[in-house]
Inverse folding.
């Protein structure tokens, strides 16, 4: 079974889901589950009201779409996982840093993999076409291709009474992948399978979806509700050191920040991190009084605050540089290695590794760690876009520095021994 799953797709969306799930504050986002659009979409059991088969949730950057997607995934899984006959549940977190891996074949293969796992857990034999296709591929050493992945997906959908496809950040797929996916789904919809699709995306994707998906779509706008932002802020304040906090400051934060956020969770998150990073009540109150509502302005303000501690700023900008310019997501250990290397170094010095908490602290909320995959990432896609605009200002020699560091690393004699021992 493990070999079949590996053959189907390298994607592991459950790891990303566990990381997002862990960051979600209890009872936030319930407004969506109670909305009329969501209720009509989830209760469309007969497939007679095709306008309810697709629910597109659109929101501006930083509105909290990913957290909402994780909530929907958990709700669907809890509500339908024990139903009989079996109901298929598949999901995907799209990621701009993983565009090469998140191609159409891998995405469809991931859905098939998730459905195969559901069959296995329920003690149901896989469809014959799945077993025979994999056997033939094994004998001929053939990789999964587009046509095969589509056929396998269709075989599951035709067996299942109902299937959910849940996608976060649909706009972060490559344009061609997104178009191809919509065309495949449009074709599958004509099989009369009870397929229901939920996705989140930025608003500009709506026109593209309407153009390629020839079925009416219900839509919902995602904005961060003030009560959800307030719950998040309470959670953050309670998890921080209380020495530099009193009831008056707490009330001021809970009153001001939800309004400053203007419907964007990310701005509230950046603001509270900035405030809690200060060391005294007076400094925190001063930070609270100087917040900017614009997302790019918030990024700029955060970086300016990093400058207040030169050593923290130097390390923080190196962290941001490596994450921003890297061709793929970096693991914490990889980043620690890179940051420990200085010009002229002759060997790797573990004593020079910055701790994970130091990496996060020096970036003032601009970087997060996915604990399930041990990878570090920028706090949001919009920060990548922000650096795209100001790369020459922030990282004028970034590629040169990375190249020099890599060459120094490769020159360490111990690496050849370690590489030999690992083979």
């Amino acid at each position: 079974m493990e070999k079949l799953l590996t053959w189907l797709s390298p994607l592991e969306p459950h790891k990303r889901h566990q990381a997002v799930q862990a960051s979600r504050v209890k009872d936030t986002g319930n407004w969506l589950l109670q909305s009329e659009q969501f209720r009509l979409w989830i209760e469309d059991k007969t497939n007679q009201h095709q306008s309810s088969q697709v629910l597109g949730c659109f929101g501006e950057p930083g509105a909290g779409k990913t957290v909402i997607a994780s909530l929907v995934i958990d709700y669907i899984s809890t509500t339908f996982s024990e139903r009989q006959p079996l109901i298929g549940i598949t999901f995907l977190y799209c990621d701009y840093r993983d565009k090469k891996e998140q191609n159409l074949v891998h995405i469809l293969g991931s859905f098939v993999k998730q459905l195969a796992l559901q069959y296995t857990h329920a003690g149901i034999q896989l469809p014959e076409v799945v077993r025979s296709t994999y056997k033939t591929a094994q004998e001929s050493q053939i990789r999964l291709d587009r046509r095969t992945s589509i056929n396998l997906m269709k075989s599951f959908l035709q067996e299942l009474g109902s299937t959910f496809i849940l996608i976060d950040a649909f706009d972060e797929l490559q344009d061609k992948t997104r178009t191809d996916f919509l065309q495949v789904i449009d074709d599958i919809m004509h099989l009369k399978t009870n397929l229901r699709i939920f996705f989140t995306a930025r608003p500009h994707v709506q026109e593209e979806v309407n153009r390629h998906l020839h079925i009416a779509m219900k839509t919902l706008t995602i904005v961060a509700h003030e009560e959800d932002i307030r719950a998040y802020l309470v959670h953050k304040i309670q998890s921080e050191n209380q020495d530099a906090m009193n009831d008056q400051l707490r009330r001021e934060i809970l009153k001001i920040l939800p309004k400053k956020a203007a419907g964007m969770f990310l701005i509230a998150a950046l603001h509270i991190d900035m405030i809690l990073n200060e060391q005294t009540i007076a400094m925190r109150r001063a930070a609270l009084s100087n917040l900017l509502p614009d997302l790019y302005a918030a990024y700029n303000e955060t970086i300016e605050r990093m400058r207040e501690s030169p050593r923290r700023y130097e390390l923080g900008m190196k962290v941001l540089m490596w994450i921003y310019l890297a061709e793929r997501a970096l693991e914490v250990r990889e980043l620690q290695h890179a940051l420990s290397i200085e010009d002229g170094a002759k060997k790797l010095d573990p004593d020079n590794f910055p701790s994970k908490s130091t990496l996060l602290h020096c970036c003032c909320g601009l970087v997060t760690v996915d604990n399930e995959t041990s990878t570090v990432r920028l706090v949001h896609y919009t920060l990548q876009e922000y650096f795209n605009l100001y790369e020459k200002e922030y990282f004028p020699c970034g590629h040169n520095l990375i190249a020099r560091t890599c060459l120094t690393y490769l020159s360490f004699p111990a690496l050849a021994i370690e590489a030999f021992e690992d083979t």
